[in-house]
C-alpha cells in the first residue's frame, strides 16, 4: 500500500482510546517503520509492504503494552532513549525540570559533576549533560547514574554511550538510597532526581498501561509517596557542594509537602504542560 494508505491503516487498526494519543502513536509507528514523518506523506513516493511486522506491533499495543516497550525506545527532549522494562518510560513533563535547571546553572564552568539519582533510563542526567555541552563544549563533565536496578543502570550507560559518545565520563553506582550509605568519591555540582512518588495505595488506581507494565519499584513512593524525598533531604548535604544546583520532580498536589520537607532551602516551583505543579529547583547556598 502507498504511504497515505499505510498511515490510515495504522490509525484505523490501533485501539488507543484517546484520539490525540492515537494520532501520536500512529505517527510514531509510521516513522519507526518508514524513517519518515507522517507530515511528509504528501511528497512521499513508493509503497510499504511489510504489513506483518506492523501488525505485530499493533497487536501488542492493542493488548495494552506501552508502545515505548514494544519499540524499545522513547523520545525525550528530541533524543531517542533506549528502554527496557526496568526503566520508567520518560514523560515530556520531565523536560520542564531540565529546561529550568539549564536556565539556572552557571554557564562557564570548566568542570561539572552531575548526580542523577533514581536515574532509570538516564534521560534526565544525559539530557542535562548533552544540552550543557552545546553551550560549553570545552567543559569536562562527569555524570554519575545512581539506581537500585542493575538493569536500569545498564540502560543508562547504553544511552549515554549512544547520545554523549566520548564527550562525558559516565559512572554507574548501584545503590538503594533508602538503606545504603550516601558515600561517594566526590561531590556534585548538579543534583537531579525523579524518584518514585506514587502513594502505595494509589498504585492499583493507575492506568493499566502503567500499573501492569512499568516497574513498580520506580513508581511506589511509600505510604504518602514522599519517603524518597525525606531521605534525599536528610542526606543531600553529604553529596553536594556549597553552590550545587538541585532539581527534583514530584507528583500531583505534593508541592506543599515538598516545600515542608526541603524547608531549609529556597525552592522555585514549576508547572508541567498540564499546568500542574511538577518540579522544583534550589541552590544549596540559598535559604
From TrEMBL:
GO terms for biological process, alphabetical: methylation
EC number: 2.1.1.297
Top-level taxon in the UniProt lineage: Bacteria
InterPro entries assigned to the protein according to its UniProt record, in alphabetical order: HemK-like, N5-glutamine_MTase, PrmC_N, SAM-dependent_MTases_sf, Small_mtfrase_dom
Catalyzed reaction equations: L-glutaminyl-[peptide chain release factor] + S-adenosyl-L-methionine = N(5)-methyl-L-glutaminyl-[peptide chain release factor] + S-adenosyl-L-homocysteine + H(+)
Alphabetical keyword list: Methyltransferase, S-adenosyl-L-methionine, Transferase
Single GO MF annotation: peptide chain release factor N(5)-glutamine methyltransferase activity
Annotated ranges, domain Release factor glutamine methyltransferase N-terminal: 9-72
Name of the protein described by the UniProt record: peptide chain release factor N(5)-glutamine methyltransferase
Lineage: Bacteria, Pseudomonadati, Pseudomonadota, Alphaproteobacteria, Rickettsiales
Amino acid at each position: 500500500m502507498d504511504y497515505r494508505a499505510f498511515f490510515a491503516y495504522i490509525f484505523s487498526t490501533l485501539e488507543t482510546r484517546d484520539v490525540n494519543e492515537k494520532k501520536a502513536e500512529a505517527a510514531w509507528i509510521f516513522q519507526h517503520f518508514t524513517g519518515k514523518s507522517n507530515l511528509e506523506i504528501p511528497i512521499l513516493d513508493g509503497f510499504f509492504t511489510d504489513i506483518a511486522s506492523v501488525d505485530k506491533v499493533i497487536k501488542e499495543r492493542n493488548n495494552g503494552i506501552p508502545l515505548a516497550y514494544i519499540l524499545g525506545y522513547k523520545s525525550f527532549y528530541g533524543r531517542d532513549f533506549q528502554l527496557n522494562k526496568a526503566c520508567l518510560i520518560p514523560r515530556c513533563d520531565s523536560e520542564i525540570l531540565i529546561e529550568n535547571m539549564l536556565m539556572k546553572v552557571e554557564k562557564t564552568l570548566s568542570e561539572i559533576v552531575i548526580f542523577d539519582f533514581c536515574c532509570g533510563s538516564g534521560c534526565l542526567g544525559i539530557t542535562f549533560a548533552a544540552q550543557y555541552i552545546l553551550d560549553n563544549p570545552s567543559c569536562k563533565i562527569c555524570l554519575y547514574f545512581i539506581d537500585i536496578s542493575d538493569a536500569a543502570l545498564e540502560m543508562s550507560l547504553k544511552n549515554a554511550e549512544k547520545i554523549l559518545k566520548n564527550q562525558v565520563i559516565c559512572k554507574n553506582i548501584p545503590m538503594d538510597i533508602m538503606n545504603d550509605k550516601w558515600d561517594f568519591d566526590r561531590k556534585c555540582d548538579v543534583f537531579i532526581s525523579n524518584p518514585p512518588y506514587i502513594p502505595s495505595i494509589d498504585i492499583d488506581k493507575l492506568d493499566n498501561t502503567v500499573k501492569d507494565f512499568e516497574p513498580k519499584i520506580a513508581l511506589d513512593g511509600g505510604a504518602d509517596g514522599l519517603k524518597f524525598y525525606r531521605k534525599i533531604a536528610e542526606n543531600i548535604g553529604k553529596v553536594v557542594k556549597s553552590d550545587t544546583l538541585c532539581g527534583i520532580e514530584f507528583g500531583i498536589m505534593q508541592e506543599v509537602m515538598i516545600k515542608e520537607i526541603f524547608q531549609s532551602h529556597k525552592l522555585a516551583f514549576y508547572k508541567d504542560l498540564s499546568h500542574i505543579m511538577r518540579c522544583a529547583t534550589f541552590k544549596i547556598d540559598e535559604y
